[in-house]
Amino acid sequence: MPTKEATINVIGDHPAIRENELYNHVYKAAGIKARLSSSINEDFLRQNTKTCELLFHPFWLAKTLVIADRPPFPPRKQPNMIFVDAVSGYRGVFSKIPPISNREIGDGSIVETFITDTDDAERYVKNVQENQINRSYILKKPMHEIREISLFYLPLWKVSVSSELLDETFFINGNTGESEKFMSERWQNKVDLL
């Protein structure tokens, strides 16, 4: 659903991949079968694109603190950034903290959230703490603090290509140019919801 002017928190500090750079990433995402076909190239993809839109996909990001007791030493405190996809419920821990920026949007679309409030998101964050972070502690499990939970948006390009040779919709990460095929499948089947 198109939005009016709004300021949102966006994951990534640089502008999203521009439309003229996009088809190189779509070509890579099309896979080996498409690349082996001599008639499929970036121009072919551009000509057969039916829709191309920049979406802003919602993610809950939680700043957490893991406190591991180590008597007689002081407890070790380790900050973490946990993400929860607000549509599919897919969740995990960021290996490095992504840059965050504010962006005014008017031409993009905001994807509707399925996990709508912070209480709901907190259940998913606690699930990550119990099932992913605690696994790395063999004996005594650490304590966890949730410092902050906020809703952020990841820029994604949705490109629908339709032709006799290729009929597929691609989701391309607007920051990295990587294909989000794995995530888009999870949005459809919602296997990660609690």
Can you describe this structure?
- The longest helix is centred in the middle third of the chain and has 16 residues, at 118-133.
- The mean pLDDT is 89.
- The chain has helices at residues 19-29, 31-36, 42-47, 118-133, 181-189; strands at 6-11, 49-70, 73-85, 91-93, 100-105, 109-110, 143-162, 167-173.
- The protein is an alpha+beta fold and 194 residues long.
- The protein has one domain.
- The chain is elongated.
- The two termini are 26 Å apart.
- A hairpin with a 5-residue loop joins strand 3 and strand 4.
- The strands form 2 sheets. Strands 2, 3, 4, 6, 7 and 8 form a 6-stranded mixed β-sheet that branches.
- It is built from 5 helices and 8 strands.
According to DSSP, the number of beta strands is 8
**Roughly what percent helix?**
10-25%
Oligomeric state, counting identical vs distinct chains:
single chain
Structural class: alpha+beta
- What fraction of the residues are assigned to beta strands by DSSP? 35-45%
Major sheet summary line: 6 strands, mixed
Order of helices and strands: EHHHEEEEEHEEH
Low-confidence stretches: none
Radius of gyration: 20 Å
- Summed up, the helix count is 5
Give the N-terminus to C-terminus distance in angstroms. Answer: 26 Å
| Mean pLDDT across residues | 89
Principal-axis shape: elongated
Number of domains: 1
Q: What would you say about this model in short?
A:
The protein has one domain (10-189). The protein is 25% helix and 41% strand. The chain is built from five helices and eight strands, in the order βαααβββββαββα.
